[in-house]
Amino acid sequence: EVQLVESGGNSVQSGGSLRLSCAASGYTYNSACMGWFRQAPGNEREGVAVIDSDGGTLYADAVKGRFTISKDNALYLQMNSLKPEDTAMYYCAAVWLGVRCHVATLHTSQYNYWGQGTQVTVSS
How many angstroms separate the CA atoms of 43 and 72, rounded? Predict the structure, then answer.
């Protein structure tokens, strides 16, 4: 059974930093595409940062230069210079179809496994 468990969400002031973690199990971790998505109240879920099995990364324009996605034994999202508009529930996601994933996109429809989310709140 595939499981994704996020942690690291918190409340911070504008300009602060947070590091999110996602522990994954139940599939061939290093062969999957994975990513971070977020959803604010009243908004659709949107892609934030993704990484493919080769280590290639892709970021949403809103977070470029401020957020960094990485993975070793877990998936991480380092978030710096946080803004109030970054406030959302952050979700870890993975796409695993039994073959190596070489192209990760920011589209939610690509991902077939999701975590429960971790809340990030940034106050001004």
Answer: 31
